[in-house]
Automatic annotation (TrEMBL):
<comment type="similarity">
    <text>In the C-terminal section; belongs to the transpeptidase family.</text>
</comment>
<dbReference type="GO" id="GO:0008955">
    <property type="term" value="F:peptidoglycan glycosyltransferase activity"/>
</dbReference>
<protein>
    <submittedName>
        <fullName>1A family penicillin-binding protein</fullName>
    </submittedName>
</protein>
<keyword id="KW-1003">Cell membrane</keyword>
<dbReference type="InterPro" id="IPR050396">
    <property type="entry name" value="Glycosyltr_51/Transpeptidase"/>
</dbReference>
<dbReference type="GO" id="GO:0009002">
    <property type="term" value="F:serine-type D-Ala-D-Ala carboxypeptidase activity"/>
</dbReference>
<dbReference type="InterPro" id="IPR036950">
    <property type="entry name" value="PBP_transglycosylase"/>
</dbReference>
<dbReference type="InterPro" id="IPR023346">
    <property type="entry name" value="Lysozyme-like_dom_sf"/>
</dbReference>
<dbReference type="GO" id="GO:0030288">
    <property type="term" value="C:outer membrane-bounded periplasmic space"/>
</dbReference>
<keyword id="KW-0808">Transferase</keyword>
<keyword id="KW-0573">Peptidoglycan synthesis</keyword>
<keyword id="KW-0472">Membrane</keyword>
<dbReference type="GO" id="GO:0008658">
    <property type="term" value="F:penicillin binding"/>
</dbReference>
<keyword id="KW-0511">Multifunctional enzyme</keyword>
<dbReference type="GO" id="GO:0009252">
    <property type="term" value="P:peptidoglycan biosynthetic process"/>
</dbReference>
<keyword id="KW-0133">Cell shape</keyword>
<feature type="domain" description="Glycosyl transferase family 51">
    <location>
        <begin position="62"/>
        <end position="237"/>
    </location>
</feature>
Length: 685
């Protein structure tokens, strides 16, 4: 009997030892596994927190003008810009032990498991905020063991590499609040039309209850259920010490106004401008479409909302609603190249084709300033005279002929100065100059001004018969306005990623390209279109605008049978207008022919209202003299008209006008010199 007892005791000891060693081995294996998981999680480093977010576009004053979304609103705001009530309510109802656990609430998990076993179904959740955030970031919401294990692993990675503050910030920025609103900022704007930082306790507690079941607890679906859950959250917050009983009672009584719609859609603000910005994000920054659409970028643009609204309103007021004529407008700061307003057409919904940056149209006489700048470089001056008369030009060794015409076939039938030729837009003077310089010179000069569209090497290029883009022309004229510095059209000032890191910061380079003196001489000549003193056989081309202008401007108009342009500038702003039909149909109505100038004058005056009336300041190396505009000679007191004209110092006229001297007794009349032709005068032959 004693032997049997000892044998049983021996077996018990063996079983116990085996169980102990097996348990110890399992514990070691489990510990090693846990250690391996944590080591691997640490080795992988912090998981990326990139989630689809709306890219936001801002005007130059910080106003939101557009966003990318496809039925989903996704914004990211820093935790400092979220109401503390919302953060406290979220922690209280979703994860009371959030600041104490390391990603998993084991007591809560055990309690939920027990409740599920008793009910024989899934009745209670135990996911922490960290687990929910991991699920929102990296996983599909399917209910499989594989997803559960991955969720746990991602939770470990989050807890090991991010602070509780970062995790909570990420959670409230990614959780779904119903009706297409992802994150608390989108939800706050949708339900209460306010920023997340401005939520009251009552509003915050209402929103904190929605993520548990947006289709159940949305106040738009069932205000009663939403209110019940709000009251539950408020009592929980009081119990957890986040609020007092008095605060709870006040919040319970607060009457909430549910807006239930997103703030006014922004994509209808300057839609043509926004299209250019998105294209620039691709071409200039190299971003792909997905990053642009869902990268949560903050794009700070150059758009001036006041000018943009003025541009659209002026066009609407000036163009008949029954007309099919189209309009393109570009406004730019000449010193920086910042595009402050842009209109690519009269109705974006009907036609998103951007006539300001995409259309290639004939610029007409707006090409002449580049031609005359080239002429100044080759020895011409504002006082250089050429004969204006009906002319048939022969080129290509006489194989081709070209017969340009002035407006209404009006010719001076005498010699006129370059200053007057520009002011009245004499075509004969321009073509003669172009042939003398050779069209290739004008092409090279246009490139210097930033014109990239290929131009035809023909005599008629002087009259703008080769198409260009409006944005190019406005940029080129801005180089006159800024004293000859090279600029490019700028639409984007700065771009930040979803975490506020600056990934692009524009710093315009201003390289001196033009001769400052010649740029100013040309600028002053371009003021001539608004100077009645330069009237001659024809009136100056800006005469119809004079009554509407209150400050110094320089510019040039241009027209072909199908295109009408007006481009001009003050020291502060350059604006270009194009009008015409998309199909190239001839503009026949008198009112339509006036549109470009009328829109330009109204827009410039309204945009600059309240700003100083600046004049164009001459640089060193130029000299102003009074000349007779008809012959380019120094004016005397007897000349009926005298115009202050700038020249590069040393090139100004030295001969006085004698045409208007009073008749006197000349006892020793001198023999009249034989008149030289313009080639001889120009080169001193």
């Amino acid at each position: 009997m004693e032997i049997i007892t000892n044998s049983r005791s021996s077996k018990t000891v063996k079983y116990f030892r085996a169980f102990f060693f097996i348990s110890l081995l399992l514990l070691i294996l489990f510990s090693a596994g846990v250690l391996a998981i944590f080591s691997y999680a640490k080795l992988l480093g912090p998981p990326p927190l990139s989630v689809p977010q709306s890219t936001l576009l801002y005007a130059d004053d910080g106003t939101l003008i557009g966003e990318s979304n496809r039925g989903e609103k996704r914004y990211w705001v820093k935790i400092e810009d979220i109401s503390p009530y919302l953060l406290d309510a979220t922690v209280s109802i979703e994860d009371q032990k959030f600041y104490e656990h390391h990603g998993f609430d084991l007591k809560r998990i055990a309690g939920a498991a027990l409740a599920d076993v008793k009910a024989m179904s899934k009745v209670q959740g135990a996911s922490t905020i960290s687990q929910q955030y991991a699920r929102n970031l990296f996983l599909h919401h399917d209910k499989t063991w594989n997803r559960k294990l991955l969720e746990a692993f991602y939770t470990i990675r989050l807890e090991m590499n991010y602070t509780k503050k970062q995790i909570l910030e990420g959670y409230v920025n990614t959780i779904y609040y119903g009706h297409g609103a992802y994150g608390i900022e989108a939800a706050s704007k949708f339900y209460f039309n306010k920023d997340a930082k401005d939520l009251s306790l009552a509003e915050a507690s209402m929103l904190a209850g929605i993520p548990k079941g947006p289709s159940i607890y949305s106040p738009l679906i069932s205000f009663q259920k939403a209110k019940e859950r709000q009251l539950l959250i408020l009592r929980k917050m009081e119990k957890d010490g986040y609020i007092t009983a008095k605060q709870r009672q006040q919040a319970e009584k607060e009457k909430l106004t549910i807006v239930g719609k997103q703030s006014d859609p922004k994509n209808n603000i300057a839609p043509y401008f926004q299209d250019v910005v998105k294209q620039k994000l691709k071409t200039d920054l190299g971003l792909d479409d997905r990053t642009i659409e869902f990268g949560g970028l903050r794009v700070y643009t150059t758009l001036n909302l006041k000018q943009q609204k003025l541009a659209e309103k002026v066009i609407q007021n000036q163009v008949s609603p029954n007309s099919q004529i189209q309009v393109g407008l570009v406004a730019m700061e000449p010193k920086t190249g910042y595009v402050t307003a842009l209109v690519g057409g009269r109705n974006y919904e009907q036609s998103p084709f951007n006539r300001a940056v995409q259309a290639i149209r004939q610029p007409g006489s707006t090409m002449k300033p580049f031609l005359y700048y080239a002429a100044l470089e080759h020895g011409f001056t504002p006082a250089t005279t050429l004969r204006s008369e009906y002319t048939v030009f022969h080129y290509n060794h006489g194989q081709n002929t070209y017969t340009p015409h002035n407006f209404n076939d009006q010719y001076a039938n005498r010699e006129i100065t370059m200053a007057q030729a520009l002011a009245v837009s004499d075509n004969i003077y321009a073509v003669k100059t172009n042939i003398f310089l050779k069209p290739k010179t004008l092409i090279e000069t246009a490139k210097k001004f930033g014109i990239t569209t290929p131009l035809e090497n023909v005599p008629s290029l002087a009259l703008g018969t080769s198409g260009v883009k409006l944005i190019e022309m406005v940029n080129a004229y801005s180089m006159f306005a800024n004293g000859g510095k090279q600029i490019e059209p700028v639409f984007i000032k700065r771009v930040e990623d979803s975490h506020g890191n600056v990934i692009y910061d524009n710093h315009p380079l201003q390289k001196q390209i033009l001769d400052k003196r010649l740029a100013f001489v040309m600028t002053h000549m371009m003021t001539g279109m608004f100077d009645k003193k330069l009237n001659g056989y024809a009136t100056v081309t800006g005469a119809s605008m004079l009554k509407d202008l209150t400050r110094p401007y320089a510019g040039k108009s241009g027209s072909t049978s199908a295109d009408h342009w007006m481009i001009g500038f003050s020291p502060q702003l350059t604006t270009g207008i194009w009008t015409g039909y998309d199909n190239g149909k001839e503009i026949t109505l008198t009112e339509d022919k006036k549109l470009a100038k009328k829109i330009w004058a109204a827009f410039m005056e309204k945009s600059l209202k309240g700003q100083p009336k600046k004049s164009f300041k001459p640089p060193k190396g130029v000299k102003a003299v009074a000349i007779n505009p008809l012959n380019g000679k120094l004016a005397t007191k007897d000349c009926p008209v005298s115009v202050k004209t700038y020249f590069v110092a040393g090139t100004e006229p030295t001969e006085y006008c004698t045409e208007h001297l009073k008749k006197k007794d000349h006892s020793n009349p001198t023999k009249k010199k034989e008149e030289k032709n313009w080639f001889q005068r120009l080169f001193g032959l």
